[in-house]
Input
Amino acid sequence: MKMKTKIVYVLVSDSSDYYYEQALISVTSARMWNSDAEIVVVVDDRTNVTLTDGREALGNVVQQKIVVNLPPEMNKKRRSRILKTSLRELVVGDFLYIDTDTVVCDSLAEIDNFCCEIGAVLDQHTTLQRMRDYQVLERVQLLGGTIEDGDTYYNGGVFYVKDTSRTHIFFRDWRMLYEQGLDKGMDRDQPALFLCNKKHQLIESLNGVYNCLIFSGGLPFLADAKILHAFNGFGFSDFFLFNDVSYYKKIREQESLTEEDLQLIKSCRKQFVGEYSLLYGKQLGYAKSVLFHLYNENRSFFQFVESIGKVLLRLQRHFK
Output
């Protein structure tokens, strides 16, 4: 029986990034496991003109391409999120939206049986109280919202949406809240998604296998994962093959996927390479700290702060 739910992607890309190559991997993996699914890619007008000269392979895998004209001065990140928050108006019928930095690794056919109007996976596979991410609170407050006990914060990388009047209203409000955030200097769609759901209470939790966030709480879902979500942390999380920029450079040079690539996609749950270790418990506090972000984003300043920390640590040990 043909799969009724559409699989939808948003692609905003040019030659300065690797989002096209990511999308090619993800869409190919979706087609590999769901041969009868209708796959739709939504692109902006600037991206559309680049889908030539070595960037045509994606068009051979999708059934429909929707092109949306956007203001020429709008940057890529904003274009991507405007398209994402507009999907309910652009796509006819029920759909499953999937970020491009993903690999599908199983059949998605059972989503045809979902009863919820909107379904998504908890961000970091945990509650807001256990997440302990100070940036989430700051972003929500910037939009004029609050976080209360019992609130749920969903990841926007994968979500299921029925075609109902209530979901159309939900998406219109989501886009409005996102645009309000832009006026306040906050260019993220998840805080707006959180506040929109606080108002409408429409999102229901999906099993973590549908959005296995492999770098943040997804380990219990890895063995049975249907969609692996690798974030876009190039250079930070490249021990996973499909988050390694060097692999996407190879795909760009090839201009298509080889039989070897298809085998790697098929066994994507095993494609961890290089050195890595698990963080857990109190160690996660460091991974979410300002110092950790400094280490990744401003190494010289981090070394200065660390040198001060070493002096303080010696003093603490001395007086202890």
Remarks:
- Residues 6-270 form a domain with the Spore Coat Polysaccharide Biosynthesis Protein SpsA; Chain A fold (CATH 3.90.550.10).
- The radius of gyration is 21 Å.
- Strands lie at 6-11, 39-44, 64-68, 95-98, 102-104, 118-122, 154-161, 203-205, 212-213, 227-229.
